[in-house]
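Human: If only I could read backbone structure tokens as easily as an amino acid sequence. Underneath my words sits a plain record pairing an amino acid chain with its backbone structure tokens. Take your time, and here it is.
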Amino acid sequence: MNNKEIRTVKEIRVEGSASGKPKISGYAAVFNSRSEDLGGFVEVIKPGAFSRTLTDGADVRALVGHDSNQVIGRNKAGTLDVFEDEHGLRVEIDPPDTTVGRDIVESVRRGDIDSMSFGFIVETDSWNTEDGQEVRTLEDVELLEVSVVAWPAYQDTEVAVRSMELSKKEVVVEPEKVDDSDLRLRLRAYEAKK
């Protein structure tokens, strides 16, 4: 798995479910949206980039912070639903009633954690230059995992937290935007070390 790459999207929420248990949902990837600078290039995900791997029945896990010791859902166990829609890669997680599950639900609900991410291996991509910027387009990827994370690579999405009461009313509460430029610099330095 030394070809594994990770990208993050800032769109996640906690919702109530019919069972009364919390559900974490959002987008782990957004189509046709440019990432932040990933070290000399930006990236765009083409619609359908996940179709093959999802159709082939990939065994995808939902993790916290890309940590394989903190599994909060799995599609083969029926606790994770991952699918493409017109917006991107939609994720719905039924977190476990464990310390990790309860902690991540509370962190998302409070707005401390506000992003999702995905780990993948590139099958097909293309490169071009637009306005002097190198642009990589992900056309087909092998999806390995989705994660709830604190560090976004894609800034074009919004974050919302919904309680069960707000979910019933279809009201979305958006947290304030924060300047995370220092965090992005540290993330780039961290990724460069890998």
Observations:
- The chain has a mean pLDDT of 78.
